[in-house]
Automatic annotation (TrEMBL):
<dbReference type="Pfam" id="PF16124">
    <property type="entry name" value="RecQ_Zn_bind"/>
</dbReference>
<dbReference type="GO" id="GO:0043590">
    <property type="term" value="C:bacterial nucleoid"/>
</dbReference>
<keyword id="KW-0547">Nucleotide-binding</keyword>
<dbReference type="Pfam" id="PF00270">
    <property type="entry name" value="DEAD"/>
</dbReference>
<dbReference type="GO" id="GO:0006310">
    <property type="term" value="P:DNA recombination"/>
</dbReference>
<dbReference type="Pfam" id="PF00271">
    <property type="entry name" value="Helicase_C"/>
</dbReference>
<keyword id="KW-0413">Isomerase</keyword>
<dbReference type="GO" id="GO:0043138">
    <property type="term" value="F:3'-5' DNA helicase activity"/>
</dbReference>
<keyword id="KW-0067">ATP-binding</keyword>
<keyword id="KW-0238">DNA-binding</keyword>
<dbReference type="GO" id="GO:0030894">
    <property type="term" value="C:replisome"/>
</dbReference>
<dbReference type="GO" id="GO:0006281">
    <property type="term" value="P:DNA repair"/>
</dbReference>
<dbReference type="InterPro" id="IPR004589">
    <property type="entry name" value="DNA_helicase_ATP-dep_RecQ"/>
</dbReference>
<dbReference type="GO" id="GO:0009378">
    <property type="term" value="F:four-way junction helicase activity"/>
</dbReference>
<dbReference type="GO" id="GO:0016787">
    <property type="term" value="F:hydrolase activity"/>
</dbReference>
<feature type="domain" description="Helicase C-terminal">
    <location>
        <begin position="216"/>
        <end position="362"/>
    </location>
</feature>
<dbReference type="GO" id="GO:0046872">
    <property type="term" value="F:metal ion binding"/>
</dbReference>
Length: 630
């Protein structure tokens, strides 16, 4: 089946977007590829279509669990078998999924980079018929990038297992330096590099430097028709801003990673269908959400890098129609950004202390804990040990780089159940234990395949059907697990922390101080670029293109800087025309003020009076108190 036929059959499109077909054909020829496509450029199609055209399974590495889950759900909905393995899953659950990848009809295996650290996963991958390795958000592999993830450094190990399999790396934002680093870190040989211009001809970039942001926010939303996105820094702000908009008769809702999954889906759907006009969100919102008709994206806080800003702002105007990317920033925001930067680099002694507190928090003995996952409540941890949240998160990133732990983002994992006994044993158990019979029957009727794989369940739904309390359902499930009949994995909505090596004491904790200084330098450069963008009075698009190694770009004519320049130029031309008309009139005769105002056809009365004063001040015309003359 041809690439276009696959696209039509599974995705319903007849044509590819720019560069997609060229990338797909390069992959099918067995070449390593690096693809830089802007937000909304259709990166996933570039590996999904060729993987469908080849025999075997495609392994996809992605750092964002929420995005992985969305893509898996989308593929399954299109009749393409896909599974995902990420932090928080049980060993048996992973075992079953990996078996399905080896022996079953699975076409896509999505893995979080932390999972590549597991010997179990690597061993099982060696038995798979892998047709392609896709690395999404590939900038995460580069230490020069804005979102470096240490576990991404492990990806090259897959190439050792399947050296003949091509690899495709995809990202929306990467400077030339980061591109070269990606190619080197992924051990690419003679890679085909595809770069779509970072220019967005329909997107008007605007920066406002003002104190009253809320007033301006209302003004923009009331002036620009259509749906929009408002990005804020933290979860508390999402609620505050959404309520403020609602009080001002604007249909708005909030979104962040802490919102329960079904509620998140509802919020997304209402916005995508334009039933909610504005979503106020943290940067957790937007990944994998394809809404082409977003007319404005407004940032109420300064981003930490131009890469992040370009990605988020780029969610506006994917339909090619005029859209606006607005940044509201003032001096206070610039100071806050510098403070956050300072907070992001704790001393080595602080990092050691936080590592020690983590061991105590999870009650781990020295030498224990390797490979164990824990649900991690950051707020509770910081409160218990009186730690700052920003410094704690920064310390954990450095501990991750040094190989002591990994930390995933907030994810919602629903409750899952797998029957460990066969049909006959379960039936015998029901007869011998009639008190559990209604729960077992209801589960088997409601959720399919529970003898073969973990099935997602809802305790509240089971309680409703059985007319018992939620606590009684949980108690019975725990009892069934204690008796070895089922494996019951309870739901979680917290980040997953894994100790990747046994706990060591503070004296033996080896912290890479040179790396901390290296990241400090890079982050300072990124912040400097953000501050320059928010303050420098040159074309915004040209600034962004220069940052992404597209120097010498023409001015866009659409951003606030270009429009101000055009207005100034138009005003200057208007004033020149009025002055020329005044002098032309006075060359022929004397004129009174009233006559001049009446006969001049260009500009307002105010413009005419202003230019008369200018000509008088420069001595080009004179007046006797009644008439004007040359």
């Amino acid at each position: 089946m041809s690439e276009t036929a696959i696209l039509k059959q599974y995705w319903g499109h007849s044509t590819f977007r720019p560069l997609q077909l060229e990338i797909i054909q390069a992959v099918l020829q067995g070449k390593d590829c690096l693809a830089l496509l802007p937000t909304g450029g259709g990166k996933s199609i570039c590996f999904q279509v060729p993987a469908m055209a080849m025999e075997g399974i495609c392994i996809v590495i992605s750092p964002l669990i929420a995005l992985m889950k969305d893509q898996v759900e989308n593929l399954n909905a299109r009749g393409i078998k896909a599974v995902a393995i990420y932090a928080g899953m049980g060993k048996r659950e992973i075992d079953i999924l990996l078996d399905n990848c080896i022996y079953g009809p699975v076409k896509f295996l999505y893995l979080s980079p932390e999972r590549l650290l597991s010997d179990l996963v690597r061993t099982r991958i060696s038995y798979m018929k892998v047709n392609l390795i896709a690395v999404d958000e590939a900038h995460c592999i580069s230490q020069w990038g804005y979102d470096f993830r240490p576990p991404y450094q492990q990806i090259a190990a897959i190439r050792e297992i399947h050296p003949e399999v091509p690899i495709i790396a995809l990202t929306a934002t990467a400077t030339k330096f980061v591109r070269e680093d990606i190619v080197e870190k992924l051990l690419m040989t003679d890679p085909q590099i595809f770069v779509q211009s970072f220019a967005r001809k329909n997107l008007s970039y605007v920066v406002y430097d003002l104190e009253d942001k809320y007033k301006k926010l209302l003004n923009i939303i009331n002036q620009v028709k259509g749906s929009g996105l408002v990005y804020v820094r933290n979860r508390r702000e999402t609620t505050e801003v959404a309520l403020f908009l609602q009080r001002n008769q604007i249909s708005a809702d909030f979104y962040h990673a802490g919102v329960e999954k079904t509620e998140r889906s509802t919020k997304q759907d209402l916005w995508k269908k334009n039933k909610t006009r504005v979503i106020v969100a943290t940067n957790a919102f937007g990944m994998g959400i394809d809404k082409p008709d977003v007319r404005f994206v407004i940032h109420l806080d300064l981003p930490e890098s131009l890469e992040a800003y370009y990605q988020e702002a780029g969610r506006a105007g994917r339909d090619g129609r005029r859209a606006y990317a607005v940044l509201l920033a003032n001096e206070s925001d610039r100071e806050t950004l510098q403070i956050r930067y300072a907070e992001s680099f704790p001393e080595v002694s602080e990092i050691r202390k936080i590592y020690h507190h983590l061991g105590s928090y999870f009650q781990l003995a020295y030498g224990a804990g390797e490979g164990i996952f824990f649900s991690f409540d950051l707020a509770d941890f910081c409160k218990r040990y009186q730690l700052g949240v920003i410094r704690t998160m920064a310390a954990m990133k450095f501990l991750e780089h040094d190989g002591y732990l990994t930390l995933s983002e907030n994810i919602f994992l629903p409750s899952r159940v797998l029957f460990l006994s066969g049909n006959e044993d379960v039936y015998r158990f029901q007869i011998e234990n009639p008190g559990y019979d209604p729960l077992i029957k209801t589960m088997l009727r409601s959720y399919g395949g529970m003898f073969d794989h973990y099935a997602q369940i809802q305790e509240s739904e089971l309680a409703k059907r059985l007319r018992i309390s939620w606590n009684d359902v949980v108690r019975q499930l725990n009892n069934l697990q204690d008796q070895g009949l089922i494996s019951y994995l309870k739901q979680s909505d917290q980040p997953q922390l894994q100790f990747t090596r046994p706990r060591v004491d503070q004296l033996h904790l080896d912290t890479d101080a040179r790396y901390i200084n290296f990241r400090k330098k890079i982050q300072q450069e990124q912040i400097t670029a953000v501050l320059a963008y928010s303050q420098t009075w040159t074309c915004r698009t040209a600034q962004l293109l220069h940052y992404f190694d597209e120097p010498g770009a023409e001015h866009c004519g659409m951003c606030d800087v270009c429009l101000t320049e055009k207005r100034n130029q138009d005003t200057e031309e208007l004033h020149d025309k009025i002055q020329f008309d005044i002098i032309t009139l006075l060359q022929n005769r004397l004129c009174s003020l009233d006559e001049l105002i009446l006969e001049l056809k260009t500009g307002t009365d105010q413009d005419k009076l202003q230019q008369l004063r200018t000509l008088l001040d420069t001595g080009k015309i004179k007046t006797d108190g009644k008439n004007y003359y040359i």
